[in-house]
């Protein structure tokens, strides 16, 4: 069984064959060569998607437990999202390959929108976890969950198609 040289899914946006053969561009925020951004993003993604699930739980049961769960999940998702944004923005600003690819811009812009919507969804819930859920809170949570899927796709494009955050010998300024 041989390994494919190229992804089996055609690119949605630009692609560069030389990036498949290169050793990649290392992350500028790494521990022992391992990029931190992909590790950090898992928790805020899980929390923000789970907030949509707990909003649905409240909608289906009217149990205030689910409203409080959403409140906590949104807060934790935002806090973790800020940490993920710091590591991601550091790479975005310091790695020219990320800035040169549409995937980098779409990934960054989508995540900024996600954090903005999440904050706007969280603030009214600080004093009242139940009231803001229906109808706008659950819609905002659904939009955030969907946008995280889009953002994740383009983050994957950066890592897997453009080899950003891959341990290698190339200079991070290589495009």
Automatic annotation (TrEMBL):
Q: Does the keyword NADP apply?
A: no
* Organism superkingdom: Bacteria
**Could you tell me the keywords of this UniProt record?**
Membrane, Transmembrane, Transmembrane helix
Query: Membrane as a keyword?
Result: yes
Q: Where is the DUF2231 domain?
A: 33-166
Tell me where the transmembrane regions lie. 39-60, 72-93, 105-126, 132-154
Pfam families annotated for this entry?
DUF2231
Protein name (record) = DUF2231 domain-containing protein
Source taxonomy: Bacteria, Bacillati, Cyanobacteriota, Cyanophyceae, Gloeobacterales
């Amino acid at each position: 069984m041989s390994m494919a040289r190229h992804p089996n899914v055609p690119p949605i946006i630009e692609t560069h064959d030389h990036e498949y053969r290169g050793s990649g561009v290392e992350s500028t925020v790494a521990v022992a060569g391992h990029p931190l951004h992909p590790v950090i993003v898992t928790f805020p993604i899980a929390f923000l998607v789970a907030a949509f699930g707990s909003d649905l739980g409240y909608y289906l049961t009217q149990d205030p437990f689910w409203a409080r769960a959403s409140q906590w999940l949104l807060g934790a998702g935002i806090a973790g999202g800020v940490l993920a944004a710091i590591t991601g923005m550091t790479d975005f600003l310091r790695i020219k390959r990320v800035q040169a690819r549409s995937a980098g811009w779409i990934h960054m812009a989508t995540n900024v929108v996600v954090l903005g919507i999440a904050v706007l969804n969280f603030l009214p819930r600080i004093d009242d976890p139940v009231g803001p859920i229906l109808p706008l809170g659950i819609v905002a949570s659904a939009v955030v969950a969907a946008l995280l899927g889009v953002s994740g796709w383009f983050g994957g494009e950066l890592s897997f198609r453009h080899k950003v955050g891959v341990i290698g010998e190339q200079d991070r300024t290589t495009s």
